[in-house]
């Protein structure tokens, strides 16, 4: 979906004009129409998966709700229906990934949202988790700011926002506009230059210096974050202009002090989905309770830790499969799984070592050390995913940590990067500095948008004009670069 096209921007602006003059019911219907139009316009194949998943999930919840919940057969009967629909939905998702004539736009996202909705309907005897109106259920799945790359918003929170008419609020509208500008700046100014550097390095890995490899790996690592988070900024901003809140998906992940914390800050709604619908149900299942009971013979800590280890393994199997099918994705997932599992198993030993060495966990130097350690581990995971073979991985890692780190080479030049002059390097460095300052302020709890609201209008609009001017002058668009391509659209 091209979020910089005249089709999208025109539909967005026209939708805003119509949305705020309608009553409560027609407001969400207008957004459903907009979402469906944009979905159909930007895909070249029929949305078969969307239609089938919507019908199956809605029909299953209707059948489950129609049953007498007091009968002994109900739990088994509803569970069978739920499992059949889940298996069928996942089968459609897998088939769509290998079939060109079926639309793949957002299939992973709305399928998992539908599965979560179905599980909640079967799990909770509460009308807040159940939707009677088929059109509103389709609207929940296809809402255009979330359909392409998430976030995984929950039905109950989404529904509550349309319980009454949404009125225009200038402050919320401007916050949405500012967020969209910030995401556009990241996508058009920072992301392409990082991507060009990383691509050049890993397409010419043979004979390149360790320093160049490390810079390319760092560029790719930041690129992944910039590409995905820029989309989230833009879509959260677009949704805010309609007065509709969707959940945050990132919280400064590179300030994390451990890998577990990194994944609690990165793609947060996906992590919460896997935790709520895979890990917790597994731990509470008959198999999970059996593992916990047998682990008690090894001590109280083992009975708590071993089920978590098993649940973590399942989550990372699912995570690696969601990102892609292949050896590199599997190894990438198992790498993260191993680090998190080792942290769980060695938690008490780490604590004793820190006490012996009298390390203050809140000290600045130790916090910085842990952040750098986490960043290095994340870069190593990306190296696993970027390497075409084990030989490439071993070669690249050997160059980075070996004596070839500073060998002379001309692998990264302005001409090869396609930059042509130093202007692009200056733009990239200055943009990253601005991004880093903003991230530090957000990490410290500094509400930038609220502070900007308190500034005088001339200063606020000066900030807007500077960002717009920077995007227009230094952004990458036109021939040779497609700004509509986002990395996570493929998942």
What does this structure look like?
The chain has 491 residues and is mostly helical. Among the domains are: 6-160, no CATH class; 170-246 and 405-482, no CATH class. It has helices at 6-19, 24-41, 48-66, 74-97, 107-123, 134-142, 144-147, 155-160, 170-203, 210-241, 259-265, 268-284, 286-295, 300-323, 327-345, 347-356, 364-386, 390-401, 414-417, 423-443, 448-454, 457-474. Helix 2 (24-41) packs across helix 6 and helix 3 (48-66) crosses helix 6 (134-142). The longest helix has 34 residues, at 170-203. The radius of gyration is 24 Å and the shape is globular. The mean pLDDT is 86.
By DSSP, the count of extended strands is 0
Structural class by secondary-structure content: mainly alpha
Share of helix, binned = over 70%
Globally, the shape reads: globular
Q: H/E series, N to C?
A: HHHHHHHHHHHHHHHHHHHHHH
Distance between the termini: 14 Å
Radius of gyration: 24 Å
The helix tally amounts to 22
Note poorly predicted spans: none
Mean pLDDT reading: 86
> What proportion of the residues form beta strands (DSSP E)?
under 5%
Largest sheet: none
């Amino acid at each position: 979906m091209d979020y910089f096209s005249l089709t999208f921007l025109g539909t967005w602006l026209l939708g805003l004009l119509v949305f705020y003059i309608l009553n409560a019911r027609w407001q969400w219907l207008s957004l459903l129409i907009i979402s469906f139009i944009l979905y159909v316009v930007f895909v070249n194949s029929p949305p078969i998966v969307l239609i089938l998943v919507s019908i199956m999930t809605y029909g299953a919840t209707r059948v489950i709700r129609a049953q007498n919940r007091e009968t002994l057969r109900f739990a088994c009967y509803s569970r069978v229906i739920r499992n059949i629909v889940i298996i069928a939905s996942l089968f459609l998702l897998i088939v769509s990934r290998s079939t060109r004539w079926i639309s793949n736009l957002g299939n992973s996202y709305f399928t998992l949202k539908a599965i979560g909705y179905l599980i909640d309907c079967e799990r909770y005897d509460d009308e807040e988790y159940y939707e009677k109106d088929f059109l509103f259920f389709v609207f929940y799945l296809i809402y255009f700011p979330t359909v392409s790359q998430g976030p995984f918003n929950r039905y109950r929170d989404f529904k509550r926002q349309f319980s009454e008419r949404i009125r225009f609020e200038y402050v919320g509208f401007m916050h949405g506009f500012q967020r969209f500008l910030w995401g556009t700046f990241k996508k058009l100014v920072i992301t392409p230059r990082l991507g060009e550097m990383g691509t050049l390095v890993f397409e010419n890995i043979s004979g390149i210096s360790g320093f160049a490899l490390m810079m390319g790996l760092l560029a790719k690592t930041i690129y992944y974050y910039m590409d995905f988070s820029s989309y989230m900024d833009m879509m959260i901003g677009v949704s805010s202009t309609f007065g509709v809140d969707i959940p945050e998906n990132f919280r400064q992940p590179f300030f994390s002090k451990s890998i577990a914390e990194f994944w609690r800050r990165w793609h947060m709604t996906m992590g919460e989905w896997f935790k709520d619908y895979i890990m917790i149900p597994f731990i509470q299942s008959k198999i999970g309770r059996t593992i916990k009971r047998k682990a008690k013979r090894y001590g109280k800590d083992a009975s708590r830790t071993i089920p978590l280890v098993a649940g973590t393994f399942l989550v990372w199997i699912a995570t690696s499969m969601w990102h892609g099918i292949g050896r590199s994705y599997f190894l990438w997932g198992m790498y993260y799984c191993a680090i998190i599992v080792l942290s769980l198993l060695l938690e008490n030993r780490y604590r004793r070592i820190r006490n012996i060495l009298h390390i203050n966990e809140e000290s600045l130097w130790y916090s910085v050390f842990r952040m750098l350690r986490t960043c290095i581990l994340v870069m190593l995971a990306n190296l696993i995913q970027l390497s075409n073979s084990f030989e490439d991985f071993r070669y690249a890692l050997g160059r980075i940590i070996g004596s070839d780190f500073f060998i002379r080479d001309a692998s990264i030049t302005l001409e090869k990067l396609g930059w042509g002059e130093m202007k692009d390097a200056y733009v990239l460095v200055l943009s990253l500095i601005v991004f880093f300052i903003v991230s530090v302020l957000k990490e410290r709890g500094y509400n930038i948008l609220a502070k900007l609201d308190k500034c005088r209008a001339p200063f606020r609009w000066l900030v807007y004009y500077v960002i717009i001017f920077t995007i227009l002058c230094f952004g990458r668009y036109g021939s040779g670069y497609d700004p509509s391509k986002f990395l996570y659209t493929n998942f």
